[in-house]
Amino acid sequence: MSGIATLKSDLSLDVLRAHWRFALARIKSDPNAAAYVADFTAFGSTWAAVDQKELGFEDAVAAADATVVAADAAIDALVDKVAAAIFGGKKVAANPALAQLFFGSLTPSKFKRPILGTELQSVQGWPAKLAAAALPALQALAAPVTAAVGAGNAAAKAFSDALVARDGFRLGGDRQRAFDAFNSLCARAYGGLKAFAHDHPELELPPTYAESFFKGSAGPTHGTTVAETAAAAAAAQAKATKAQAKHDAALKAAAAKEAALKDKQARVAAAKAAAAAAKTAAAAARVAAAAAAKKKG
Fold first, then answer.
1. Which pLDDT belongs to residue 263?
2. pLDDT in tens, 196-213
3. What's the domain range around 248?
4. Does the pTM of the predicted model rise above 0.85?
5. Measuring CA to CA, which residue among 38, 45, 37, 36 is closest to residue 17?
6. Residue 108 domain-assigned?
7. Among 236, 210, 212, 208, which residue's Cα sits nearest to residue 223?
8. Is residue 194 domain-shared with residue 69, that is, in the same domain?
9. How far is CA 254 from each of CA 248, 259, 263, rounded to the nearest angstrom?
10. How many angstroms separate the first and last alpha carbons of the chain?
11. Of 188, 213, 238, the domain-final residue
12. Integer Cα distance of 269 and 272 in angstroms
């Protein structure tokens, strides 16, 4: 459309609504645009229906994501039980070959990362390995691990399907038709209003009369009026302040962690030094005792 913005469907529905509400309010404010009020008013139902569908897809993604987290937690708990059976609460496995069979070169904590990522792929073969294990504690985990792996596979697929469905909706269908319908409404109204201004020079309407009924290009996000730019600046400042607070907290936590590590290292070094000194003193005492005994003899 010449002179006014054409909204692309990759914009949010909130942006579309903002343009629609602006146009509707502006059209209602001018008697010369009365012929377009009904069509622009009716578009509200179109927007609401599409928005409801998009919310449904977003809700499905959120629900599937929550199921993924729950499935991952269940698998993590069983990974901990397998590790307990193999490691027996120690840092080094009593049976290194068994640890290698289940965890490869990873520690159990690293094996569990990320959420339903490589962990889910790695535990696919665990049910058979657990069933064939010599340790009764591992054999007992075969059934729950089988169930957890099945639930994890189902959760991962459901999440992937939900994402595909949501993204497919965003790329076409009713959503695309809503943007096309609004752009078409605007094109017709703009053309009519432009012609009206041309046909009625006696009204001395401004050159941008027809454009004034439609919100500016959707490209800039900082606004064009003083109020809009001030609001954008305030929002950006608030966001920056929040980010700085998080950064400061992270630095503080890192410093505390480093201090704790240095303190631990210092205590370990002091303990080692004390042990060495005690050992040296004991050795010196033995030498002195031997010398005294020899002298006495």
1. 58
2. 999 999 999 999 999 999
3. 224-297
4. no
5. 45
6. yes
7. 236
8. yes
9. 10, 9, 14
10. 117
11. 213
12. 5
